[in-house]
Amino acid sequence: MRSPSDPCLCSSSGQVAKERQHPCFDNTSFFSCGRIHLPVAPACNIQCVYCLRKYDCMNESRPGVCSKVLTPAGAADRAASYLQAHPETSVVGFAGPGDPLANEETFETMALLAERDVHPLLCLSTNGLYLPENIQRLTDLGVQYLTVTVNAASLETAEQIYPWVNYHGNLLHGREAARLLMDGQQTGIRKAAEAGFHIKVNMVLLDGINTDEVLTLAKLLSSWGAERMNINSVINVTGQDFIHPVHPVEVRRLREEASKYIPQMRTCAQCRADAAGIPGAELTTK
């Protein structure tokens, strides 16, 4: 395994760099390898009670925000120039600010990177709703890493977290919405694992809502084929009084308990949709 001082080289000329690692899948590479997120996906197909993407502050580090949504051509240009200037960058990621699989621009950008002979590791984050139907397409485009956000192990809990789901124009609410989303997440993760993807699952903790389901979900994720789990407290940007963050001590305890069933990521920067750089270096400078 690479030590934190070793470089994580990535080539934008089509040559595969030696021992490239994903900093969000490898705790050591978190401090030595970089990533760049391309914000090309504004639309989302679900609503989470804790999500608000209306505002952006440059000092704000959280998923769902970016300063500017890029066109596929603009994003491909940015990736090519950034990788050339920052050889420690190993990963180009697609993390929003909406759901990448709900935006055709995601796939257009990936295709442009290949056309321009830019070949980093490709990573995509999703809520999982459209994942089952896109496994082959992602495979064909060279995606290797997936992060799926799964916040519930039961329909009752999912109903509290997701007010609605929009499945290709069909707007669903309540139990029906929760069931469709959870089915997509389970089926998508299973199919992705069978196809050889590296899969990390994010879980956003809402105190008193889903904290009792952490261990149940950890067991399920392991049986579905996920490689690791990333547990973090909610950032309450909506101001709703029923949304409460979880104390860091409790987050650490839940990670420790869940690690009995699936490896845990313990170093997460909760990145913006336009994040760039070495995530471990960003944390040490805050």
Can you walk through the features of this model?
- By secondary structure, this protein is α/β, with parallel strands linked by helices.
- The protein has eight helices and ten strands.
- It has helices at 72-85, 104-115, 135-140, 155-161, 174-194, 214-224, 248-258, 279-284, and strands at residues 34-37, 46-47, 89-94, 121-126, 143-149, 164-167, 170-173, 198-205, 228-233, 276-277.
- The protein has a seven-stranded mixed β-sheet with strand order 9-8-5-4-3-1-10. A three-stranded antiparallel β-sheet has the order 2-6-7, with helices on one face.
- Helix 1 (72-85) packs across helix 2 and helix 4 crosses helix 5 (174-194).
Secondary-structure blueprint of this entry?
Blueprint: E1 34-37, E2 46-47, H1 72-85, E3 89-94, H2 104-115, E4 121-126, H3 135-140, E5 143-149, H4 155-161, E6 164-167, E7 170-173, H5 174-194, E8 198-205, H6 214-224, E9 228-233, H7 248-258, E10 276-277, H8 279-284
Helix pairs in contact: 1-2, 4-5
A few lines on this structure:
This protein is an alpha/beta fold and 286 residues long.
Helix % is 25-40%
Series of H and E elements: EEHEHEHEHEEHEHEHEH
- Strand content bin: 15-25%
**What form results from the Cα inertia axes?**
globular
The number of distinct β-strands equals 10
Structural class label: alpha/beta
Low-confidence stretches: 1-7, 9-18, 55-62
Largest sheet: 7 strands, mixed
Radius of gyration, whole Å: 18 Å
Mean pLDDT: 83
